[in-house]
């Protein structure tokens, strides 16, 4: 896997993935940015949420759950000192659908956390305290 990050101006950078997708990262105005995109650490957090969500949704679809929506809410804490690394990250999955089986959702979240989500597992290996929870929302038929 490869990517490039190119300085645009100020504290704005354009990143491009090997598959050709681009995203702009920028800083806040007080640091010379124009607030045109997420901060790099926000990108890490969003990437982790995307990785875990992909796993959870994939497993729920394979277990034939009628999922209408799957939202991962991430809440992170960072160290006060430089480097301001993540110290804690909590992922809460809000899964909406019809006749969802809690056991399937619980298992999907657990398997993502313990076996499949490379980003979560990498964060834990780096010393970040990562936790997971879920909420089921039953939709009317």
TrEMBL record:
Gene3D superfamilies reported for this sequence: 2.20.25.10, 3.30.300.20
Domain of life: Bacteria
One Pfam family of this chain: OsmC
Matching PANTHER family: PROTEIN YHFA (PTHR34352:SF1)
Protein name: Osmotically inducible protein C
Species of origin: Oceanicoccus sagamiensis
